[in-house]
Design a protein that fits this description.
With 440 residues, this protein is an alpha+beta fold. The chain has 3 domains: 199 residues, no CATH class; 95 residues, Roll (Pdz3 Domain), CATH 2.30.42; 73 residues, PDZ domain (Pdz3 Domain), CATH 2.30.42.10. It has 13 helices and 15 strands. The longest helix has 32 residues.
Length: 440
């Protein structure tokens, strides 16, 4: 099955789960407070519904427009803009008749469910699949360091020992910590065996992002070929899996970092020396226009310092909560990049979200992506923007503090402004996806 189809199915299933549970977060407290819920829909039913059935006072259904879902609560100014209902005297079962604290609980219910669901999924992932830990010693050759880090004392071949006094439990997460988490000091072990504590400025993360160095550390591994793609230059030249690349045009490329740099910067034919079964040979290779020759390198991790750690349920709960907390923290912290020129062009829509899922069906990948999206939805929905849950919460808090309820007319206008803002953002984000698909 095509990777695009697999990703689309996973996205559709994930969003369906998250939307239904989000709306249940509104539906259940509404029912508990004896508030009438007229509709409960997965996807929007503009002019048409794929399926609908009335049970009691609520119509349950599936719409045709997969941009979300909704519950229509009687007496509430929402995206339905039911002005006729709002013109009638308030009824006891309506949202507007309920005390402000009850309305607040109804409105935060969806966000609460999404947040708790994200944490719960992470707990279950860690309980069922465990957690891979890769200690610094697993990379015997250390890291290749981006030029942007070298002014602060980093050197190629450095091994990262501690970050802000803590030993990283997975060195493959170090780049995210550099760019997003505002690390203040790093203890490194240089190639010559000396150790040093390096101080970093608060602005380093933004500097790395703007410079495009979002992966400032690259594991140094030998240039031992793991895979060669048929039909591409390396295969046609006779390179095969297991070969070790010794040099390109006389420049040492025994490490993958050096090899990839030579391929990327070389113009014209390359004289490539490789070793196979202790015997060296030389071939001519011409990279494609995209600077690709069609090889992948094998990881050279010291497996003595790698483990797939298993967790009991008692251990998985705090570990999952910690993972969920840092997921939320990193997402919120990364939003500062949206206000840069580069960040604005990287905003994405459904296409970008679909890329979170694996190319082949994999339950671990599926649930990891679903948990991430759930936490993102929780945060985005609580933003104080009219038409989002956070907009309703903002006006309810104003009412509870001031003792004055915003007028229905004001709420209608605010809802319309928020709705058009969201539509504009939706069009912009998905427009970016389309542009990247066509021109990049």
């Amino acid at each position: 099955m095509s990777p695009v189809i697999v990703k689309t199915i996973q996205l559709f299933l994930s969003l369906s789960i998250l939307i239904v549970l989000h709306e249940l977060g509104h539906f259940i407290p509404a029912k508990l407070f004896k508030t009438r819920v007229e509709k409960f829909f997965l996807f929007f039913d503009v002019k048409y519904a794929i399926f609908k059935k009335k049970i009691g006072e609520t119509v349950y259904g599936i719409g045709w427009l997969p941009l979300g879902g909704y519950v229509k609560i009687s007496g509430m100014i929402d995206e339905s803009m039911d002005k006729e209902q709002m013109a009638q005297p308030a009824q006891p079962w309506e949202f507007r008749s309920k005390p402000a604290w009850q309305r607040l609980i109804i409105m935060i219910g969806g966000v609460t469910v999404n947040l708790l669901l994200g944490f719960l999924i992470y707990i279950m992932i860690i309980f069922n699949w465990g957690k891979q830990e890769i200690l610094p010693e697993a990379l015997p050759d250390g890291f290749a360091v981006a030029e942007e880090l070298k002014p602060y004392g980093f050197q190629d071949g450095d091994m990262i020992l501690k970050m802000d006094g803590k030993t990283p439990d997975n060195v493959m997460n170090l780049n995210r910590m550099f760019v997003i988490r505002g690390i203040e000091e790093v203890e490194v072990k240089h190639k010559d065996g000396t150790t040093e504590v390096l101080a970093l400025p608060d602005s380093l993360g933004t500097y790395l992002y703007k410079s495009g160095a979002t992966n400032p550390l690259t594991p140094l591994t030998p240039s031992v070929i793991e895979e060669v793609e048929e039909g591409l230059p390396a295969y046609e030249a006779g390179i095969r899996a297991g070969d070790k690349i010794v040099s390109i045009n006389g420049n040492n490329t025994s490490l993958w970092h050096d090899f990839s740099r030579e391929v990327r910067t070389n113009e014209g034919p390359m004289e490539l020396v490789y070793e196979r079964n202790g015997i060296t040979d030389t071939v001519q290779v011409n990279a494609t226009e995209d600077k690709v020759i069609g090889v992948a390198v094998a990881n050279n991790y010291n497996t003595d310092f790698m483990q797939q750690r298993k967790f009991s349920m008692g251990e998985a709960i705090p570990a999952g909560i910690d993972y969920g907390y840092w997921t939320l923290h990193d997402y919120v912290a990364s939003l500062k990049f949206l206000f840069t020129k580069k960040g604005a062009t990287e905003i994405g829509g459904f296409g970008t979200i679909a890329q979170l899922f694996p190319d082949t069906w994999d339950w671990l990948g599926f649930w990891n992506s679903t948990a991430l999206i759930s936490i993102i939805l929780a945060f985005m929905n609580i933003l104080p923007i009219p038409a989002l849950d956070g907009g309703h919460v903002m006006f309810l808090l104003y009412e509870m503090i001031s003792g004055r309820k915003p007028s229905d007319k004001f709420m209608e206008y605010a809802q319309m402004v928020g709705f058009f803002l969201l539509i504009g953002l939706l069009l912009y984000a998905n427009g970016n996806d389309i542009y990247r698909a066509i021109f990049e």
